[in-house]
Amino acid sequence: MDLTPIYLTLKLAAITTLLLLVIGLPVAWWLSRGRSFFKIALEAIITMPLVLPPSVLGFYLLLAFSPQHGIGLWLQKTFDVQFVFSFKGLVLASIIYSMPFMIGPIKSALQQLPASLSQASYSLGKSRWQTFTRVLLPNIKPSLLTAIVLTFAHTLGEFGVVLMIGGNIPGVTRVASIAVYDSVEQMDYHAANVYSLILFAITFVLVIAVFIFNKYQLKSPLE
Amino acid sequence: MISIDIKKKLKAYKGQHILQIKQQFAAGSVTKIYGPSGGGKTTLLKTIAGFTEPESGKIIVNDVVWFDTETKINLPPHKRMAGFVFQDYALFPNMTVREHLAYATTDTEWITRLLAIGKLEPFATHKPEYLSGGQQQRLAILRALAIKPKLLLMDEPFSALDPESKSALINELKVVFEALKTTVLIVTHNPQELDGLTKMEINIS
């Protein structure tokens, strides 16, 4: 039984979640402050993967990063980087695909904090960075945890985008969800069952952990 | 000396009205600001602190220009460092009483003194959710004082205190204000409650 797809899936989910946390925190903070047409448009783009068929997103990413033309060709020539049919491509696609799961809960939580909290911190001479790390972040812990776990779990379950941009290369882009599909195609129901059960167990444990933690914090995990 | 000369539009249920203030406050003076609800008392304090901008005018505090529409100067709130006591207290839910003060100052002797002034020593390790309304309000006052501000803006700072604690706290605050030479503006709905503390008053109507 080849467990490489499970390892690849966990690696992809961990890297995506970490990178999205770094990208998502400042973006969510910026989006939570005031409204402008540019912010609304950016938020709509970030939210698109929630409603767009994953294959559509994957198709456009495939076109954009194809080494034959456009950005893909430029990346290949300038940096010798190829996103299509590589693990890097999976990470890029996952970041775009899972972005609303990281940014949404953090942005909502920041918006729900009273403006007077940051104002109180500023009045004590604290900078925006100090206010963000010492006052805002510690007070949105449940939502932050929800965002991290949802992003991780959502990346575990990706299929359409990953298949379009990564294909099905064993050890490189063949993640667990694709291995399940592939095993069923080959009538290997035992392998499909093992991959599915492992994915099911991991996601179940993650989601239930969030519910327990957030109940302890007296807040719904989906708030 | 604090000099304020500002104009700011205030949104109201029916249209808007203009808040226009031209006033000077002597250094170390304590002034009460009163007037009907919606008159712009809180907005005035927030404008001075830098949380909101007036349409035009000037704010000069101890010869430093904090805001001036002509020269386009607008110091951010963290550079103004006006002590601010919020009407909703704005306490940090993640911090204990002592952590609130330690976030504002590293002077441990001053923290100990402040805890004594607010009679909050027994609650130093408590977070705001485990404090009564009056204790939360006292903590909000102590936190603003922790930075030893030259200008202190207080929005209904004694509303949750019983008469006895209010009187005791006001006596303590008088001493602190004099020692720090702090200029204080206090918004209140009940001007009589500050009779022993303030000499100057402004009616915003």
Explain the overall architecture:
The complex is a heterodimer of chains A (223) and B (205). Chain A is built from 11 helices and no strands. Chain A has helices spanning 4-32, 37-51, 54-65, 70-79, 87-112, 115-123, 128-136, 141-156, 160-166, 176-185, 189-216. In chain A, helix 1 (4-32) packs antiparallel against helix 8 (141-156), helix 5 (87-112) packs antiparallel against helix 8 (141-156) and helix 6 (115-123) crosses helix 7. Chain A starts with a helix and ends in a 7-residue tail after the last helix. The mean pLDDT of chain A is 90. By secondary structure, chain B is of the alpha/beta class. Chain B has a single domain (23-51, 81-203), classed as P-loop containing nucleotide triphosphate hydrolases (Rossmann fold). Chain B has helices at residues 41-49, 77-80, 97-104, 108-117, 133-146, 163-180, and strands spanning 2-11, 16-25, 30-34, 56-61, 64-68, 73-74, 83-85, 151-155, 183-187, 200-203. In chain B, helix 3 (97-104) runs parallel beside helix 5 (133-146) and helix 4 packs antiparallel against helix 5. Chain A binds chain B through residues 114-117, 119-128, 134-135, 138-139, and chain B through 46, 49-51, 76-84, 86, 88, 90-94, 103-104, 143-144, 146-147.
Topology summary:
The complex is a heterodimer of chains A (223) and B (205).
Chain A: H1 4-32, H2 37-51, H3 54-65, H4 70-79, H5 87-112, H6 115-123, H7 128-136, H8 141-156, H9 160-166, H10 176-185, H11 189-216
Chain B: E1 2-11, E2 16-25, E3 30-34, H1 41-49, E4 56-61, E5 64-68, E6 73-74, H2 77-80, E7 83-85, H3 97-104, H4 108-117, H5 133-146, E8 151-155, H6 163-180, E9 183-187, E10 200-203
Parallel strand pairs in B: 3-9, 3-10, 7-8, 8-9
Antiparallel strand pairs in B: 1-2, 1-4, 4-5, 5-6
Helix pairs in contact in B: 3-5, 4-5
